[in-house]
Amino acid sequence: MNNVNTSVGNTSVGEEEYTLYGKSNITETLRGLTFQISANSFFQTNTHQAEVLYKLIEDCAGLRDDGSEIVLDLFCGTGTIGLTLARWVKHVYGYEVVPQAISDACRNAKLNNISNATFVQGDLNKIGGDFGNAFPKPDIVIS
């Protein structure tokens, strides 16, 4: 991938992106789910350790096993953490600033037949006082 960034500063997301060779995304399997990840999206690069981390998150979440929890996944990237919890909760709401990551998260939910996940693009550093009105009160917050 060739990512063109004309601005001054340290950023990995540029204004233009070109696929020089191969596909424009990669596919990974994590905790029994398949994820497609584009170049400008965040994904844990060490998938073995991500398996361990996501299991730890699941264990620490203290899920009630009745499918009633609302999960708020802040800075969700491609949706991997929220989607791995989705099978045990009522609904997952993911928020992320990178538009391509949100697109990937939505695609990953469909790819894995997960219908109880909503992903929203927005800058969490600039949220207003009405932020909590966009979803039910969460039982679990991941950040």
Question: What labels describe this entry?
Answer:
3 helices; four-stranded parallel sheet; globular; single chain; alpha/beta
Describe the model.
By secondary structure, the protein is of the alpha/beta class. 24% of the residues lie in helices and 26% in strands.
Number of domains: 1
- Over the alpha carbons, how many angstroms does the gyration radius reach? 16 Å
Head-to-tail CA distance between termini: 29 Å
Number of helices: 3
In brief:
S-adenosyl-L-methionine binds at residues 44, 75, 96. With 143 residues, this protein is of the alpha/beta class.
Indicate the topology.
Elements: E1 2-4, E2 16-18, E3 25-30, E4 33-38, H1 47-61, E5 70-74, H2 80-85, E6 91-96, H3 99-111, E7 117-121, E8 140-142
